[in-house]
Specification:
365 residues; alpha+beta; 3 domains; 11-stranded mixed beta sheet; globular
């Protein structure tokens, strides 16, 4: 994980070093029919398509790094999965995620902004406590809609007694004024709040809604404020992050949350095209080693076009297309090597030379 992170950081251009980096955290399920695999268990999967919300298999927690690179004069974020850890009964997913973040954070000591992106499962005290350990680490995450949030503490009144630690309790339905127009795909409201999850730390709360009057509302927290970010909005590859203007600036942390989707794309690609679910190793250590070996191969295909200038033409292609192109070149080289090794007699070599000469003459004619 640390080596992959170190290699990825070398690819960030010098003029983009001030841009934020993102650590995406999520987990994925791998269904297994056999019950002799170590640490296999019955797992709840809200996205299961087997007629039930439960499956027999393994749960893996993974960490992904998103780094800024140039792509046709636009800033594009390259998503590099750093590694997988299998969840065991004695260790929760939150504890695994926290340990993985602590492991790679020394690689980012020179970075200004490292932002964790995660869904509502991980916005809990175990992971929030890690954010407090590093000055350059922040978190933007989806939260449960029923999370307790408060208004900021009122100013001291000068009266006797202990001052209030926070203001009144807020409701996402009535205390957030939604924007007059859609911000991206949603009507959005925001304000600074206090919440038990982050203790006494002020955070920015965002509430999104599908409709202006009616619709389901979602809650997001950001420990970093728009004024603390140095991001080149006008150069971003995709909307709505590339929209500029004072009216859009307060919503930047919410726009950044969209980079979390890269980890879902990575799960789909590795499961569909890289045989991530096809392992037959039974021991937990063996499964982890094999899954991470597949991940290293996947990362190599993502990093290689940026590390080798001769392969830069593949930077815009999918990982699978680049892997296919690379495998075709390897097959051709193997064919030529075998052909040369099998030309043993003078008769065979003379015939081959004549055939090549005729081919050259036909091409130049």
């Amino acid at each position: 994980m640390n080596v992959t992170a170190r290699l990825s950081l070398r690819l960030v251009p010098a003029d983009l070093r001030s841009q934020p980096l993102f650590l995406c955290i999520d987990d994925t399920m791998v269904s297994k029919f056999g019950k002799k695999f170590e640490d296999v268990s019955k797992l709840f999967d809200h996205a299961a398509h087997n007629g039930s919300n439960y499956l027999n298999g393994h749960c893996f927690v993974s960490l992904m790094l998103c780094i800024p690179v140039w792509n046709r004069d636009r800033i594009s974020y390259l998503a590099v999965p750093l590694g997988y850890r299998m969840r065991q009964k004695k260790e929760s997913k939150l504890e695994l995620a926290s340990a993985m973040v602590r492991q790679v954070m020394p690689e980012f000591h020179a970075q200004k902004n490292i932002i964790i992106l995660c869904d509502s499962w991980y916005v809990k005290q175990n992971l929030v406590s890690v954010v407090e350990e590093y000055e350059n680490l922040d978190l933007i995450g989806n939260a449960r809609a029923d999370s307790v949030i408060y208004d900021l503490a009122p100013l001291p009144t000068g009266k006797k007694g202990r001052p209030a630690k926070h203001g009144r309790r807020l409701s996402i339905d009535s205390d957030f004024i939604l924007s007059a127009e859609k911000v991206g795909d949603y009507y959005t409201g925001y304000r600074r709040v206090l919440t038990n999850i982050f203790g006494t730390r002020e955070v920015m709360a965002y509430v999104t809604c599908t409709g202006k009057e009616n619709g389901s509302r979602r809650l997001f927290f950001s420990t970093i404020f728009p004024t603390q970010l140095q991001i080149f909005c006008a150069w971003q590859e995709k909307a709505p992050l590339n929209r500029t203007g004072s009216g859009w600036m307060p919503y930047i942390p919410l726009f950044l949350y969209s980079f979390r989707w890269n980890i879902e794309v990575s799960y789909y690609e590795q499961k569909s095209f890289w045989s991530l679910c096809a392992y037959m190793v039974r021991s937990r250590k063996g499964v982890e080693m094999l899954v991470n070996l597949i991940n290293i191969s996947y990362c190599a295909m993502k990093l290689l076009p940026y590390m080798e200038e001769t392969l830069s033409q593949y930077r815009g292609d999918s990982v699978q297309e680049f892997r296919f192109a690379l495998s075709e070149q390897i097959k051709r080289q193997i064919f030529y090597v075998n052909l040369v090794q099998n030309i043993e007699s003078h008769i065979k070599s003379t015939a081959l030379i004549k055939a090549l000469q005729r081919l050259c003459l036909r091409e130049t004619a």
